[in-house]
Amino acid sequence: MPDLExxxxxxxxxxxxxxxxxxxxxxxxxxRRCLYGLEHKNPQSADSCHKPARGAFSKxxxxxxxxxxxxxxxxxxxxxxxxxxxxxxxxxxAQKREGTVVSAKLAQEARADAPSDKYTIPGLVKPEKxxxxxxxxxxxxxxxxxxxxxxxxxxxxxxxxxREKVTGLAIRRSDSIEECGWDQRLCFGDEEVAEFGTSVLxxxxxxxxxxxxxxxxxxxxxxxxxxxxxxxxxxxQKLRLAEVQFEKEMKEQALxxxxxRERKIRTRIEDILDPHARVSATCNSVHTTPQKAxxxxxxxxxxxxxxxxxxxxxxxxxxxx
Length: 321
Ligand SMILES: [Zn+2]
Ligand SMILES: [Zn+2]
Ligand SMILES: [Zn+2]
Prior knowledge:
Blueprint: E1 9-11, H1 15-20, E2 29-30, H2 35-38, H3 63-79, H4 84-91, H5 104-113, H6 131-175, H7 190-210, H8 213-216, H9 236-272, H10 275-280, H11 290-295, H12 306-320
One zinc ion binds at residues 34, 36-37, 49, 51, 60-62, 65.
């Protein structure tokens, strides 16, 4: 037996045994092979999948093989003139199936009425949520995630800005004295900056007014008092400045990316809700029913009776889908 096929054996019966007992019609049984392997352009070759399919759960050995097989099918279909964009448009909103419900009673009636070869699935109960609601829900979840990420980036940005400021102050100070002047507080982490950040800035203000007196203060121990080109910190000014500027640039880019993504999601949400709904409803009231909307006070200064009218018409549009 070829090595490749070993995985596919279900129950092995050795050939001598098969020959010895012909009356028992013994034979080796096989598992069904992964469909991606079977449909490979050369199924016998070693680079086609030889793993067994996941039985009742799937025609494929794995999700990867399933995806690869579908890609293959789409390519073949596109080669024959299929429109990939159209295909994507029609499936991109697809979600995990919620389950379908079939009415046994209706099914029985339909079977009785229609010829057996012609009846379709009767009493099919559609999923509760419309495609529109589902898409909105997904978009809101994405939006929350982006906003959360952006807030985190902003907080880190504050830290970078603090460091940039202190670096500048420390450099200016070191320029005016015959000492190294490295400020070890530049290594503060976010918690230390939150606690001492302001006092660090203040120490430079008072340092400037007091002149050289500050260096001999016990409080000034964070400034290195070594010689101008101290062995431990030589060239710290250039290094630190470059570092903090690079960090700032990275954060700016990350923030810009997140802001752009946020704007795109918001536009998409607005596009889904119709323009009238956009005027009368805030994001928060999207999920409220029209009945509730009538009892809600107008939040944007629009005359009250208008809101329910718009909400109503948008609801009707939804139902038609
Ligand atoms: Zn045997
Ligand atoms: Zn496979
Ligand atoms: Zn130093």
